[in-house]
Amino acid sequence: MKQELVLKEKLPEGWKWITIEDAFDVTGGDSAPQEKEYFIKGDIPFVRMQDVGRYHFTTNLIETVDKVNRKAVDDRNMRIFPKGTILMPRSGSVYCNHRAVLGIEASVVSHLACLIPKKEVSSIYAVYYLATFDMTKISSKNTGLDVLSFKDLKKVPFLLPPLQVQKQIVAKLDAQMAHIEIMKKEAEKEKRAGEEILVSSLDGIFNNPNWKHAKFKEYFSTKYGLSKPSVKDITRTKAVRMNNITYTGELVLNDICYLDLNKDELEKHKLKKGDLIFNRTNSAELVGKNTYFDNDETYVTVSYLVVASPKNDKINSEFISYYLNSSKLKKYFLENCDRAISQANFSASKLGEIQIPIPDIKVQDELCKKVRLLKEEIRFIQQNISQKLSAISQLTSSLLNEVFGKYEIPEVK
């Protein structure tokens, strides 16, 4: 089909609208190797979605969690992308609108689109411009996940000034973005400080040598969540995912998924008040995050989560969740999880062997009240910091809009 770029406002002399296909060589990364042999003594950076997501936006991505070796590249015909390649999600996380410029040569996972700029395009200018475009506008759904096709991506309009003008725009944006980044890091530091206050307080609460201890499995029965594809129908059963559990143990019931379950599945897996939800599979530093369920609505969990139900009224799952979220236990999970390529696991059977404190139930209940009050105070502080971070994010959008927003994006027909 012929494309017609309909200009709605005149551009400065020398500027023009082209498409991403005109400005870049557009391709994608390669499937991630699964065999450990391909990562032994690896020296070639392998960019995964988590590496891009860690920054959300960066003009210089140089750190990756994993590195592959030359054997992986040769055996699997993996490509090495040049410095200056622009990366963005093309499956699963399109809605995040992450953008990154490679600051090094690297191999790249297949979930990322790779845009290699042509001679007349500055990588840094391009990533600034592409940050203004919401790719969910052209994405589609495949088995519940956002998918960005190369065909649609190539049609996206791209604003191309002369190269010298691109460099001038980059210089201006770099200086202003650096100031915004300083503000962002300061706010994030304040937010982490609040989390550390909670964790250190939990350490103090559980440092009581007079309490008796028992194995987790003596007081809880466990089962894994459901391994089923999500559906779009929001009238189906709500399901808690691992992203709904924060690092400090909050249950955040937004961005949930939905599962189509029969009566028996729902009856077996429906969460009950007082259930403890444990994240068994994640990156190593996040394995073991957990929370307790205190909600009247109907929810189930997905397979990466373990549901632990109290066996009697001598145990308060909220109390045990606080214990499992203490720094002592977080360190234990990190050191004792079973590690694989890019993820780690702490099974329900291993969870069952953990020694947990069992003070009198009245003591458990009273300590829970104290922790809730502390969490409420920290939550208030965190909300203010989150508002600050949101305002900082708006500064970025406003800055980019000031540069690019004066020229309306042409329609692609």
Architecture overview:
It is a single chain. With 413 residues, the protein is an alpha+beta fold. Helix content is 37%, strand content 23%. It is built from 12 helices and 26 strands. Helix 6 runs antiparallel to helix 12. It starts with a strand and ends with a strand.
The helix content, as a percent range, equals 25-40%
Record field, number of beta strands: 26
- Supply the number of helical segments: 12
Largest sheet: 5 strands, mixed
Detail the topology: elements first, then pairings.
Elements: E1 5-6, E2 16-19, H1 20-23, E3 24-28, E4 44-47, H2 49-55, E5 57-61, E6 66-68, H3 70-76, E7 86-89, E8 99-102, E9 107-108, E10 112-117, H4 123-130, E11 140-142, E12 145-147, H5 150-155, E13 157-160, H6 163-205, E14 213-215, H7 216-219, E15 220-224, E16 237-240, E17 257-259, H8 263-269, E18 276-279, E19 281-282, E20 290-292, E21 299-301, E22 305-310, H9 317-324, H10 327-336, E23 338-340, E24 343-345, H11 348-352, E25 355-357, H12 361-404, E26 411-412
